[in-house]
């Protein structure tokens, strides 16, 4: 017959109950350990979450800074776009101004060409007038010099004075304004003259060169004469020092009765 305990339980049942209780106690102990482990994991997760939130906060701050930087960049881009547009407008105005200047340049060139042509015509007119005045003075000198040279130097003129060309070589000629021959103090001389509206020192120098050429061509002694409307005392002295006789235009007006 099975043994019983003081509580009325058989020993087998008692052992079974103790075994069940021991198993539950062990289960409870394991559960507590797991719970402690879980609490530790939860704490780690909480810390990780806190770190994640901090990183998210910093990331959010960076994103905000980037957004502000983007806003500033867009603002600068808008300003730059405006500047580019202003530069484009300025370029258009510059191009228009350049076209205006080019057109003005064309008009200026046309006017300059007209002025150049007018200046050329004026010079031709003045040149023609100068020639007319010069020829007029030469004509008066050719008419009056025979009397003046006879009166002042006792020269006898062989034939009327002329305006002509002297042949220096075949097909090469030297123009002379006043030319003729005469006899003075028993010497036969060639009379060479020029007429200038206003006698300058350079005219005297040029006449000396003409004298040298004519002397070489004719092989004769040259009697040089210059006729002018006006000459300074200095120029007249320079001519006299070279043996050149200078007559002023009013000296050519000889009274008809004295011829």
From TrEMBL:
Top-rank lineage group of the source organism: Bacteria
Coiled-coil intervals: 28-118
Alphabetical UniProt keywords: Coiled coil
Protein name: Chordopoxvirus fusion protein
Upper lineage: Bacteria, Pseudomonadati, Thermodesulfobacteriota, Syntrophobacteria, Syntrophobacterales
């Amino acid at each position: 017959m099975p043994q019983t305990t003081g509580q009325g339980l058989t020993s087998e049942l008692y052992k079974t109950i103790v075994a069940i209780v021991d198993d539950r106690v062990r289960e409870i102990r394991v559960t507590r350990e797991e719970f402690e482990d879980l609490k530790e994991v939860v704490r780690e997760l909480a810390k990780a979450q806190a770190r994640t939130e901090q990183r998210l906060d910093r990331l959010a701050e960076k994103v905000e800074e980037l957004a502000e930087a983007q806003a500033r960049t867009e603002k600068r881009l808008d300003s730059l776009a405006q500047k580019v547009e202003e530069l484009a407008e300025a370029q258009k105005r510059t191009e228009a101004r350049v076209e205006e200047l080019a057109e003005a340049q064309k008009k200026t060139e046309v006017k300059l060409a007209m002025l150049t042509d007018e200046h050329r015509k004026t010079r031709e007119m003045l040149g023609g007038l100068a020639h007319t005045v010069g020829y007029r003075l030469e004509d008066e000198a050719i008419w009056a010099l025979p009397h003046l040279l006879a009166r002042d130097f006792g020269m006898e003129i062989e034939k009327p004075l002329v305006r002509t060309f002297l042949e220096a070589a075949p097909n090469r000629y030297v123009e002379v304004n006043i030319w003729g021959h005469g006899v003075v103090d028993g010497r036969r001389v060639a009379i060479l003259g020029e007429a200038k509206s206003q006698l300058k020192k350079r005219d005297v120098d040029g006449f000396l060169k003409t004298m040298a050429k004519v002397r070489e061509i004719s092989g004769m002694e040259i009697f040089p004469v210059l006729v002018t409307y006006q000459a300074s005392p200095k120029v007249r002295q320079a001519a006299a020092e070279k043996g050149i006789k200078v007559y002023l235009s009013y000296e050519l007006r000889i009274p008809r009765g004295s011829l």
